[in-house]
Write a structure and sequence with these properties.
By secondary structure, the protein is an alpha/beta fold. The chain is 45% helix and 7% strand. The protein has a four-stranded mixed β-sheet. The radius of gyration is 21 Å and the shape is globular. The protein starts with 20 loop residues before the first strand and ends with a strand.
């Protein structure tokens, strides 16, 4: 990898010098700057400027008078982007009244948003009438009947996951809460969990029976990381690269068909979110409030993430498409990978990950790894200091 000390993120007030973060047991964790609060705020302001222009061009949405906070609601962004979801407070139309009448007869209408204690993030089950990206596609294959119960089923574990990330990765916790407004849950054989610019600020989670705390920790870092990087790069997506951000990229050794047909920007998103997932899952292993079976699942998820992380990181660095900014960001992601592999993966008892799809399958993992290993330091995080995201 080519060394570089130049990065647009390294401006005064952007990331600055980062001191080690103290772990739960008092040891210092090496800290890697990946959240960039000043750059995130600048990206958010560019997005607000665009949304205000759209609000003027589409007065029928009723968003022109909203403040910045309400304007950044994913439903408002969806309405301004041309989705069918209408923002709260918008003047109703005849079409809206027809939709409400239909909702009253529709047993699969989603319930209202659930507010989580001590967090600005809200939780809601998707509805077939919401018009969320991908979920309203004819081939989405969402199980709407089962979807109605997913939000309330995940409520406790999402709250616990936010607490774990707050205790173990405070910088990432602040960044995710600063960029994310809503978690939308659904279930079915359709799209996997995702984030989309057409509903920016929302995390879409495909929840299946048994998905709990480990799932929520991984998805907060994964889909929350997508929203974070989209905010950082909004309006300047080409800047990390020496080529256009939409340049097609073919992986040298595709893990599954899910990683084919990606652009260089998508590949950078993969490496960035994998760094956040690796750091979050590794840190969670050392949290005393996880049960033995939860820690067992976190280990499996971490090992699978590291396998994908290695492929994507090698591909990104070998592609020779990064400019100074991208190289600096990739260097920080590589540091997370090397710290996690050197500090945990080389010492932990390996898992049987045969049969795993691209996204972790809890049922497959527990079928092949039914019992947690002995709960000793090599299977947890504290054999050496873990990495902290700041």
């Amino acid at each position: 990898m080519r060394a570089t000390t130049v990065s647009p993120f390294d401006r005064p007030g952007s990331s600055g010098a980062v001191a080690p973060v103290t772990a739960l047991d008092g040891r210092a964790r090496p800290a890697v700057a990946l959240t960039f609060p000043a750059a995130r705020d600048a990206g958010r302001q560019r997005l607000v400027t665009l949304l205000r222009r759209l609000a003027q061009l589409r007065p029928e949405v009723g968003a022109a008078g909203l403040d910045d906070h309400d304007l950044l609601d994913p439903a408002v962004i969806g309405a301004l982007a041309g989705r069918t979801t209408r923002p709260p407070g918008a003047r109703p139309t005849r079409h809206d009244q027809h939709e409400r009448d239909h909702h009253e007869r529709d047993p699969h209408q989603g319930a209202g948003r659930i507010r989580l204690a001590a967090s600005p993030i809200e939780l809601v089950a998707a509805s077939r009438t919401d018009g969320w990206p991908l979920l309203d596609d004819p081939g989405a294959d969402v199980d709407w009947e089962a979807t109605t119960a997913t939000a309330r089923a995940l409520r406790t574990d999402l709250g616990r996951a936010l607490d774990v990330v707050h205790r173990t990765q405070l910088g990432l916790h602040r960044a995710v809460e600063g960029s994310t407004r809503l978690v939308v849950t659904y279930t079915g054989d359709g799209p996997g969990s995702f984030a989309a610019l057409a509903a920016h600020g929302a995390l879409f989670w495909n929840c299946r029976p048994g998905d709990g705390l480990p799932y929520a920790i991984e998805e907060l870092a994964h889909q929350g990381g997508h929203v974070l990087l989209t905010t950082l790069l909004f309006g300047r997506e080409d800047e990390p690269f020496r080529v256009p951000a939409d340049t097609a990229f073919a992986p040298s050794e595709p893990v599954t068909a899910a990683v084919e047909d990606r652009t260089v920007l998508v590949l950078l998103h993969a490496v960035f979110t994998e760094a956040l997932m690796a750091a979050s899952l590794w840190a969670a292993l050392d949290d005393p409030l996880l049960t033995a079976i939860e820690r067992h699942e976190v280990r499996g998820r971490l090992e699978l993430v590291l396998r994908r992380f290695r492929h994507d990181l090698v591909d990104l660095l070998d592609a020779d498409v990064l400019g100074p900014w991208g190289l600096a960001l990739a260097a920080r992601c590589r540091e997370v990978f090397e710290l996690t592999v050197g500090g945990w993966a080389r010492h932990a008892e390996p898992c049987d990950l045969s049969g795993q799809p691209y996204a972790f399958c809890r049922r497959t993992f527990l079928d092949r790894n039914p019992a947690p290993p002995a709960d000793h330091p090599q299977n947890r995080a504290h054999c050496v200091p873990a990495v902290a995201i700041t």
